[in-house]
Structure formats: C-alpha cells, structure tokens
Design a protein that fits this description.
This protein has 290 residues and is of the alpha+beta class. The chain is built from 4 helices and 13 strands. A 4-stranded antiparallel β-sheet has the order 1-2-10-9. Strands 5-6-7-8 form a 4-stranded antiparallel β-sheet, with no helix packed on it.
Length: 290
C-alpha cells in the first residue's frame, strides 16, 4: 500500500515537472518570436499613451471647474458689495442696474439656499430649480401727484355731488386714470360727507435685460413711468457644475461586432494586412475610455 502511494506521488511530481517544462518552453517560444513581442510591446505602449491622455483630460477638467468656482466666488463677493445705480437712458427714462449673483445649485451655501427658497415659494418653482436659469426681483415705489378735473352737480337744495377725473398716458404702456366722486350735504350750518368713492387704474411697463459688461453679468431695468422709483433690483444666475462635469467613466463588459480592413496577427504569429470580421466579448477599463 505504501509503495502504491509513493508511486502515485512520484508520478504526480513527474507530471508537474513536464507541465512546468512545457510552459517554460512555450514562454521561450513566445519570447523568441520577435514579431509577436514587437506587436505586444506596441499595444502596451498605445494603452499607456491612451491612459496618460485620459489622465491629462481629467486634470484639465478639474482645473477648469476649480477656476470657474473661484471666479464665481469672486463675482458673488463683488455683487454683495454692489448697490443699485440709477441712470437715464437716451429718452430720459429711469434706468437701474446692478451686478448679478451666480449660484451653483450643486453646492448652495446656507444663505444662498435661504434666498432661493423665497423665490421658490413666491413663484411656485420646483424644489431643485430644474430648468430655471435666473431669479429676478425688483422693489418699486410709486410717488405720484395728480392734476384732477372736478365737476359739481346739485342734487337738491342741500346736497351736492363733486366728480373727480384725471387721465394720463405716458407712453410705452404706462398710464394712469383716476375717477371718483364725493357727495356732500349741508344742514344745520355744517357740511356732511354722505359718500365718497375713488377708482385708480395704472399700467406700468418695465423693460429688463441681463447684459455682460466687462466679464460680469448686470441686470438692467428701465421704465418711463414718471412717478415710479426703482428702490432695489436683484438677479441670480443659476448654474449646476455637477451637470457640466463629464460623466464618470466606469469599467464595463461589452459585446462587439466589427468589420474592417487593417493590420492582422494570424495564428502563425505573422502580421499581415487585409480585411477582417469578428464578434467578441470585451472588457473596457475606465482609464482606457476616451
């Protein structure tokens, strides 16, 4: 029994030695084939070159995003220091302008999130502000004086009705119309107001634009309504740096079918040119995707 076990061990050892010798022989044959070695070396160099190109591209993208973020922070700092500038256009109309903010939706700070929440509630916007490019607001104050035309109508010996009317058209969709009346009664040597009613109709036209001036966006707002004063305006441009970043590449398996003409390596390890056709299962590492 012991002899049989020893014979089996010796036979297994001999077989392993033969397999080892065969493997060494095959490796030597492969290494001695200059054509194959040249082909493999060239393929490896190409792969390394593609990987380096991909790394450089990713680095360029990171640098670009970092520069954009730094520029955004500087712009918001300057916008916070800016105030509304009131000018006059060629028609003499009031023109207000101010520097615009720029918020990154993928990285909102606390104060920025609080500010955008105000717009979401007022304008019934979606929570993530998807498809929203800008948020704009204006605080306006109307200071007006009216030239009123009055007419009187005697109702009876003690009652009189006074009618008020004023109408102005300022052009460009701006107008104001006031109508009203008040009824007075005189009795017991005193005037008594019986009824008073006024109706005021106003149309206000505002024109706005966002213009890039010296590399910074500025909100401009104008109106030709003479009694309107622009107290404050605000514009927030919205971007999403996460959407601007290229999709992260992942390693994956692929099934491919190809037809072409080019350089081929046949079973005899000989490189030749000619047509080729093939179907295969491929694994693509992320560093080789470009």
């Amino acid at each position: 029994m012991l002899q049989m076990v020893l014979c089996g061990i010796m036979d297994l050892t001999g077989r392993n030695r033969r397999i080892k010798r065969n493997m060494i022989t095959k490796i030597k044959d492969i290494l001695s084939n200059r054509t194959l070695v040249t082909f493999v070396a060239g393929a490896l160099l190409c792969l390394l070159f593609l990987r380096q190109c991909n790394s450089i591209e990713n680095l360029k993208q990171d640098v670009k995003l970092a520069q954009e973020d730094a520029g955004r922070q500087l712009n918001n700092f300057k916008a916070a220091q800016d105030s509304v500038t009131i000018l006059r256009n060629d028609n003499g109309d009031q023109l207000a302008q101010i520097r615009s903010y720029e918020f990154d939706l993928s990285n909102l700070e606390g104060s920025q999130a609080k500010l955008t929440k105000k717009y979401k509630k007022a304008l019934a916007l979606n929570d993530d502000l998807k498809e929203v490019n800008s948020l704009i607001s204006a605080n306006l104050e109307i200071k007006d004086s009216l030239d009123v035309t009055t007419t009187t109508e005697i109702i009876d010996t003690t009652t009189t009705k006074v009618t008020f009317a004023s109408s102005e058209d300022f052009g460009d969709g701006n107008s104001r119309e006031l109508t009203g009346f008040s009824t007075f009664k005189y009795e017991f040597e005193q005037f008594k107001v019986l009824e008073t009613k006024f109706e005021l109709k106003q149309t206000l036209s505002l024109m706005a634009a966002i213009e890039n001036v010296d590399g910074a966006d500025r909100l401009k707002l104008s109106t030709s309504y003479p009694g309107l004063e622009i107290k404050d305006i605000e514009n927030i441009n919205l971007v999403n740096s996460r959407l601007n970043r290229k999709d992260q590449k992942k390693s994956r398996w692929m099934v491919g079918f190809g037809v072409g003409y080019g350089v081929n390596l046949n079973n005899n390890q000989v490189i030749s040119t000619g047509p080729s056709i093939g179907v295969g299962l491929y694994w693509s590492p992320k560093f080789l995707q470009f």
